[in-house]
Design brief:
Length: 424
């Protein structure tokens, strides 16, 4: 058995399964492309946080942006998860999935008035504030509603996360967070506002980190700030290190979650701080695959193409970041392998999910694009008027459609001809 297969996506009797369900069977009933998630994989990744944190005051808030499917959120809500949101839409998803608003942190640089109102109404755990205008806006809204808003400041510690530049967020030049040099002054301002309760400090330096050092460098900077503020009478009760822990897509060796948590806990020492984390990718990336079918094989003088029914509109990571995803045949064939570019039908040269993959293929074969559970479906679009894929959650021997395939009628239903719907 290849090492690319996992406990959650095993090869059984020569065919790839999600837990106990053959992917072929799902393709026959639901069609392709489809995202398939494993409940057990989500639970296992969740436990990798929950177990080492069991005896430490903590809150783990799953980053909804990484996978916002209601079925997935429901699995996490049932495990007692908190949630990290960046929009009111994500908040409504969390509530619809059975999540607890009291365990929600509201992140993001551009929260709108109506979003702040709704979050206050729902009673979120705290707002991660990223600028002075945002702080003032929240004060005004909370005052208008006659409530108090709990906040932490998302500071930008100016630490290099050593990851892809597009997903690095903790450097001075990034739009995120409050400059560490200005943090004290802004805490004092926040502390003086009547409808603001300062409760924590927060940072998120980037995503897909494969080393502990940047996390610990950022933590040291946050802890120095926590101590300084305490000396001034501003005593924080939680410290939120954001998300960012990387996963293995190909050959990366990110730290184990418990190693990360142990290192963080050690540095916190005797400080009385609830530890908050906002993991996304490390909970769901390896809990999902994109199931797709080879439409046809095209051989040119220079290249072999496998043209599939999935495309960059379904999974944009390879086109956007040059990301690697393993691509496995659902029923591996024996025979001569050729190096294939795995491409979709979209009219863009960047429409590929993998390049130069050694595979033995025939028209109609099913392929599983692995590690697609995070930043997959959430970043899907209707480019080329392609309907977005179905999503299926597998739990042991059962499979539930947790999002039906989008139809052309779904897409057209939002639009109208000139004259049919005048603005005024
Ligand atoms: C504020 C914030 N928290 C959490 C996350 C989740 O990060 P990851 O999926 O890398 O764990 C992100 C995305 O990078 C983020 O921007
Ligand atoms: N979309 C990115 C991660 C972005 C993280 C957002 N805070 C990815 O697919 O890797």
């Amino acid at each position: 058995m290849s090492t690319q297969y996992s406990d959650f996506f095993p090869l059984v009797d020569g065919a790839l399964q999600a837990e106990g369900v053959p992917l072929q069977q799902i393709a026959e009933t639901v069609g392709t492309p489809a995202y398939i998630y494993s409940r057990a994989a989500i639970e296992s990744a969740w436990n990798s946080y929950a177990k080492p944190l069991a005896d430490i005051p903590h809150l783990v808030c799953f980053a909804v942006k990484s996978n916002s499917n209601l079925g997935v959120l429901n699995v996490l809500a049932e495990l007692g998860a908190g949630f990290d949101i960046v929009s009111v839409g994500e908040l409504e998803r969390v509530l619809a999935a059975g999540g607890n608003a009291g365990k929600v942190v509201f992140s993001g640089v551009g929260k709108q008035d109506h979003e702040m109102r709704r979050a206050l109404e729902a009673g979120v755990f705290c707002f991660n504030i990223e600028s002075i205008p945002e702080l003032d806006r929240l004060q005004a809204i909370a005052a208008d509603m006659g409530v108090t808003a709990r906040i932490s400041l998302r500071v930008n510690p100016n630490v290099d996360a050593q990851t892809h530049p597009y997903i690095s967020t903790g450097l001075k030049d990034n739009k995120f967070g409050i400059d560490i040099e200005r943090a004290e002054e802004i805490y004092q301002r926040a502390d003086s506002l009547p409808n603001i309760e300062v409760t924590g400090v927060d940072c998120h330096i980037g995503s897909q980190l494969t080393s502990l050092d940047p996390f610990l460098d950022a933590l040291d900077i946050l802890l120095a700030l926590v101590d300084k503020l305490a000396a001034q009478g501003i005593v924080l009760s939680h410290l939120d290190l954001g998300g960012g822990l990387g996963v293995t897509y190909k050959d990366e060796q990110p730290p184990e979650t418990d190693e990360y948590i142990r290192a963080v806990h050690e540095r916190i020492g005797s400080r009385n701080l609830t530890l908050v984390f906002e993991p996304g990718r490390s909970i769901v990336a390896n809990a999902g695959v994109l199931l797709t079918r080879v439409e046809l094989l095209k051989h040119t003088e220079h290249k072999n193409f496998a043209i599939i029914d999935g495309a960059m509109n379904d999974l944009i990571r390879p086109a956007l970041y040059g990301s690697w995803h393993d691509i496995l045949p659902v029923v591996p064939r024996s025979g001569e392998e050729l190096a294939y570019d795995i491409v979709g039908p979209v009219c863009e040269t960047s429409d590929f999910l993998g390049k130069g993959r050694d595979l033995c293929l025939k028209d109609g074969d099913l392929l599983a694009v692995m590690s697609a559970g995070a930043y997959g479906m959430v970043m899907a679009s209707n480019f080329n008027t392609r309907g977005r894929a179905a999503e299926v959650l597998v739990s042991g021997q059962t499979a539930d459609i947790v999002r039906r395939r989008e139809t052309i009628a779904d897409q057209l239903s939002l639009e109208s001809l000139p004259g049919e719907n005048p603005c005024f």
